[in-house]
C-alpha cells in the first residue's frame, strides 16, 4: 500500500519516526511530507533515510513530477501525525500553502489525523470546530491522549502511542476499498467493556472472567471508521486504543453513572461489558477473617440496576441505537431472543461462553439478533471481525434515521 505520512511542526514529530518504522516494516511504501516547521524537530535527511523516499516541503521542488497532485492521487492512506492545531485549521479551511496542505486537498483516500498539542489549544472552540468540520467530511480525527505534555504540563493533547495509531491505520487500510470506510464519521458512540467488581471487603470482590477484549475491539474499530468514541472500561489491563476517550470504572453503579453521562449526545451505545447482576448488600469495613470452627456468615446480595434495559427504555436522543451482549452457557439462541425482548434494545450480540470460550480469547463467534427479527451469524474469527459486523448493523440503522 502507498502511505503518505504528513508530519507537522510539533515536538511529537520525533515519535512519528516510530510510526514510519512500523509502516515500512509491514511492507508499505511510505512517502513522508513534512511541513517546514516539522524540520526544526526532525530533519529531511532522517525522513528520507527511514522511508527511502525524498522528503520535501514545498510544491516548487521536483516540479516536473507535479508532487502536490501526484502524491495525493497515488495514496491509499494519508495520515498526519502529529497534527498540530495549525494543520487542522488549514485542512478544515482548504488552505494550500505548502506540499502537505496541497496533498491533503488532492487526496481521495482515507485521511487520518493524530492531533498533538497543549490542552488549551485542543479545547479551544476554534480547534473543536475545525475537528468537527473534518469529521463531517469523512476524515478520521482521533482523540489525543491524556498525559505529560511539553515541560511540566499535563492534560489532554498528548500524541497517542505510535503502535496504537498504526493499528488504527491498519484497520483503515483493511477497509480502504469499502466506500463506508468512515461511515461513522461525525458520530459519537459509547462502548462499555470489561467486567465489574463488587467489593466484599477491602481486598475481596465478586467479579467475572471478562477480559474486555471484545469491547476494546469495538472501540478500536469504531475509531477506525471515523467515530468519536467514549470507552467506559471496567477493570481492564489492556492499552487504550488510539483516539478513544477512556472512562475507567470499577463497580456496576460506577459503570451505570459513566454510561448515563456519556450517552447524552451519543448516536449509539454498545453495552459489551459484563455487568454484575448482584452486589453485596454491605461492604465489610475490614478484611473478613477466617475463624477456626466457625462457618462464615452468608453474604446478602442485592440486585444491581439493569443498565441495558434502562437506556433502551429511555433513549437520550431520538434515533439512538442501543446494542446489548448476552453471554450464555446453554440454550444460547432461545435465551438470547428472550433477553432481547426483555431488554428492549435494537441489537443483541449472543455468544456461548465458558472457561475456554470467548473470555480472554482473541477470537469470538456470535449471532447478532435484531429487534426487527433479523439474525446475523458471525463465524469464529478475530474479535475485530465481530466488531465490524456490529458496526455495519449499527451504521445501517443510523443511516435509516437520517
From TrEMBL:
<protein>
    <recommendedName>
        <fullName>Coenzyme A biosynthesis bifunctional protein CoaBC</fullName>
        <ecNumber>4.1.1.36</ecNumber>
        <ecNumber>6.3.2.5</ecNumber>
    </recommendedName>
</protein>
<feature type="binding site">
    <location>
        <position position="339"/>
    </location>
    <ligand>
        <name>CTP</name>
    </ligand>
</feature>
<keyword id="KW-0288">FMN</keyword>
<feature type="region of interest" description="Phosphopantothenate--cysteine ligase">
    <location>
        <begin position="189"/>
        <end position="402"/>
    </location>
</feature>
<dbReference type="GO" id="GO:0004633">
    <property type="term" value="F:phosphopantothenoylcysteine decarboxylase activity"/>
</dbReference>
<keyword id="KW-0479">Metal-binding</keyword>
<comment type="similarity">
    <text>In the N-terminal section; belongs to the HFCD (homo-oligomeric flavin containing Cys decarboxylase) superfamily.</text>
</comment>
<comment type="similarity">
    <text>In the C-terminal section; belongs to the PPC synthetase family.</text>
</comment>
<dbReference type="InterPro" id="IPR003382">
    <property type="entry name" value="Flavoprotein"/>
</dbReference>
<feature type="binding site">
    <location>
        <position position="277"/>
    </location>
    <ligand>
        <name>CTP</name>
    </ligand>
</feature>
<keyword id="KW-0436">Ligase</keyword>
<keyword id="KW-0511">Multifunctional enzyme</keyword>
<keyword id="KW-0456">Lyase</keyword>
<keyword id="KW-0460">Magnesium</keyword>
<dbReference type="InterPro" id="IPR007085">
    <property type="entry name" value="DNA/pantothenate-metab_flavo_C"/>
</dbReference>
<dbReference type="GO" id="GO:0004632">
    <property type="term" value="F:phosphopantothenate--cysteine ligase activity"/>
</dbReference>
<feature type="binding site">
    <location>
        <position position="325"/>
    </location>
    <ligand>
        <name>CTP</name>
    </ligand>
</feature>
<feature type="binding site">
    <location>
        <begin position="305"/>
        <end position="308"/>
    </location>
    <ligand>
        <name>CTP</name>
    </ligand>
</feature>
<comment type="function">
    <text>Catalyzes two sequential steps in the biosynthesis of coenzyme A. In the first step cysteine is conjugated to 4'-phosphopantothenate to form 4-phosphopantothenoylcysteine. In the second step the latter compound is decarboxylated to form 4'-phosphopantotheine.</text>
</comment>
<feature type="binding site">
    <location>
        <position position="343"/>
    </location>
    <ligand>
        <name>CTP</name>
    </ligand>
</feature>
<feature type="region of interest" description="Phosphopantothenoylcysteine decarboxylase">
    <location>
        <begin position="1"/>
        <end position="188"/>
    </location>
</feature>
<feature type="domain" description="DNA/pantothenate metabolism flavoprotein C-terminal">
    <location>
        <begin position="184"/>
        <end position="396"/>
    </location>
</feature>
<comment type="pathway">
    <text>Cofactor biosynthesis; coenzyme A biosynthesis; CoA from (R)-pantothenate: step 2/5.</text>
</comment>
<dbReference type="Pfam" id="PF04127">
    <property type="entry name" value="DFP"/>
</dbReference>
<feature type="domain" description="Flavoprotein">
    <location>
        <begin position="1"/>
        <end position="170"/>
    </location>
</feature>
<dbReference type="InterPro" id="IPR005252">
    <property type="entry name" value="CoaBC"/>
</dbReference>
<dbReference type="Pfam" id="PF02441">
    <property type="entry name" value="Flavoprotein"/>
</dbReference>
<comment type="function">
    <text>Catalyzes two steps in the biosynthesis of coenzyme A. In the first step cysteine is conjugated to 4'-phosphopantothenate to form 4-phosphopantothenoylcysteine, in the latter compound is decarboxylated to form 4'-phosphopantotheine.</text>
</comment>
<dbReference type="InterPro" id="IPR035929">
    <property type="entry name" value="CoaB-like_sf"/>
</dbReference>
<dbReference type="InterPro" id="IPR036551">
    <property type="entry name" value="Flavin_trans-like"/>
</dbReference>
<feature type="binding site">
    <location>
        <position position="287"/>
    </location>
    <ligand>
        <name>CTP</name>
    </ligand>
</feature>
<comment type="pathway">
    <text>Cofactor biosynthesis; coenzyme A biosynthesis; CoA from (R)-pantothenate: step 3/5.</text>
</comment>
<keyword id="KW-0210">Decarboxylase</keyword>
<keyword id="KW-0285">Flavoprotein</keyword>
Amino acid at each position: 500500500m502507498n502511505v503518505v505520512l504528513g508530519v507537522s511542526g510539533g515536538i511529537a514529530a520525533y515519535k512519528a519516526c516510530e510510526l514510519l518504522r512500523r509502516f515500512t516494516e509491514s511492507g508499505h511504501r511510505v512517502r513522508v511530507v513534512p511541513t517546514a516547521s516539522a524540520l526544526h524537530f526532525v530533519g529531511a535527511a532522517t525522513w528520507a533515510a527511514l522511508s527511502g523516499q525524498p522528503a520535501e516541503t514545498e510544491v516548487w521542488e521536483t516540479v516536473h513530477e507535479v508532487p502536490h497532485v501526484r502524491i495525493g492521487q497515488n495514496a491509499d492512506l494519508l495520515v498526519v501525525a502529529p497534527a498540530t492545531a495549525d494543520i487542522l485549521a488549514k485542512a478544515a479551511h482548504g488552505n494550500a500553502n505548502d506540499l502537505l496542505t496541497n496533498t491533503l486537498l488532492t487526496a481521495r483516500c482515507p485521511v487520518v489525523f493524530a492531533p498533538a498539542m497543549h490542552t488549551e489549544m485542543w479545547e479551544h472552540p476554534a480547534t473543536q470546530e475545525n475537528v468537527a468540520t473534518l469529521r463531517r467530511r469523512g476524515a478520521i480525527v482521533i482523540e489525543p491522549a491524556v498525559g505529560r505534555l511539553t515541560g511540566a504540563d499535563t492534560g489532554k493533547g498528548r500524541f497517542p502511542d505510535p503502535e496504537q495509531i498504526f493499528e488504527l491505520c491498519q484497520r483503515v487500510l483493511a477497509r480502504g476499498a469499502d466506500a463506508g470506510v468512515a461511515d461513522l464519521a461525525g458520530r459519537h458512540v459509547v462502548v462499555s467493556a470489561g467486567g465489574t467488581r463488587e467489593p466484599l471487603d477491602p481486598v475481596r470482590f465478586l467479579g467475572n472472567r471478562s477480559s474486555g477484549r471484545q469491547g476494546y475491539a469495538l472501540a478500536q474499530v469504531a475509531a477506525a471508521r471515523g467515530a468519536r468514541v467514549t470507552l467506559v472500561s471496567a477493570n481492564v489491563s489492556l492499552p487504550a486504543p488510539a483516539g478513544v476517550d477512556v472512562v475507567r470504572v470499577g463497580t456496576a453503579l460506577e459503570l451505570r453513572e459513566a454510561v448515563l453521562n456519556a450517552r447524552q449526545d451519543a448516536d449509539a451505545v454498545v453495552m459489551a461489558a459484563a455487568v454484575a447482576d448482584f452486589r453485596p448488600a454491605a461492604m465489610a469495613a475490614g478484611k473478613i477473617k477466617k475463624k477456626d470452627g466457625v462457618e462464615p456468615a452468608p453474604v446478602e446480595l442485592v440486585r444491581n440496576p439493569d443498565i441495558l434495559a434502562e437506556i433502551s427504555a429511555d433513549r437520550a436522543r431520538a434515533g439512538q441505537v442501543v446494542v446489548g451482549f448476552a453471554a450464555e452457557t446453554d440454550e444460547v439462541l432461545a435465551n438470547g431472543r428472550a433477553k432481547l425482548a426483555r431488554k428492549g434494545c435494537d441489537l443483541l450480540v449472543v455468544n456461548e461462553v465458558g472457561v475456554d470460550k470467548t473470555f480472554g480469547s482473541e477470537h469470538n463467534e456470535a449471532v447478532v439478533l435484531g429487534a426487527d427479527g433479523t439474525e446475523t451469524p458471525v463465524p469464529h474469527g478475530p474479535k475485530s471481525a465481530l466488531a465490524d459486523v456490529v458496526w455495519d448493523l449499527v451504521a445501517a440503522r443510523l443511516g435509516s434515521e437520517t
